[in-house]
Amino acid sequence: MRNTILFGVSMILLANLCFGIMSAFVKITADYFSPMENVFYRSITMTLLLLLVYPFKPYRLKSYKQGGFKKLAFRVVVGGLAMLAFFYNIEKISLATATAFSQCAPIYTVLLSPLLLKEKLKTSALISACIGLVGVVLISDPSVENVGPVEIIMGVLSGIFVSLAYITLRDLREYYDKQAVILAFAFGMSLLGLAGMFVDIPFLSTGIHIPRKEDILWISLIGISGTLGQYFLTYAYMNAPAGIIAPIEYTRIVWGLLFGLYLGDTFLDLKSSLGVALILCSGLLIALPALLKELKNFKSCN
Questions:
Q1: Model's pTM, two decimal places?
Q2: Who has greater pLDDT, 233 or 289?
């Protein structure tokens, strides 16, 4: 049991590092590629890597039971919209702030679960979510580092769409193999990204820019780091309880801050720092009951 938990914790730490690296590479390419193009190149590279691995480690592509295709398609769409909004903000604002917006997903999950999953909303969870919403308001400061209305909307949407993707994943476990869900997401996003590149969408798509020689390396690294992050994340939740894994996911904000500073972002001001701190606090409070329960079970097993 102990080795399994340690393995899961190691996997989530590696996943967050890989996602942080991916975000940094996206910020590097954002001066040339639009968010839609970055989504396409990230997804198509991931699809090719998964197809190359499949002959060596095959997995079940067919569903266990009927009725899961619509949920899978919904997961692809909302996951893609979350990535698109996140990539837009990576280009426009600091990496730390963009990551903090995206990591608000647990807050929205708490608020949306009663509507979508008919789950009873606990008072403690509601208070925790409200603390997080205050944090969102604090980092949504138009006077700070080009955070305008569009960036705020994109930030909120990125968190909401990630939340919807996570909620959908709960149901998909009953229909598809985890690896098949990852492949479907990568392939679906490749198609959506490719189609979007041919449409002029304000803020998100500005046509097609042919990759230059130096861009091939960045595109490959975006796809490789994103694929590794997805795999490590999957194995983390497969090998350790979600209650222990979820709080550690917030280390992604730390990587966003460090990589952002390395790439030239300025330090967060006091208000933004307080907002990020409240988002972190909110997420940890939301995950705390599950964490305490898992730790109690762990002690009883030993």
A1: 0.85
A2: 233
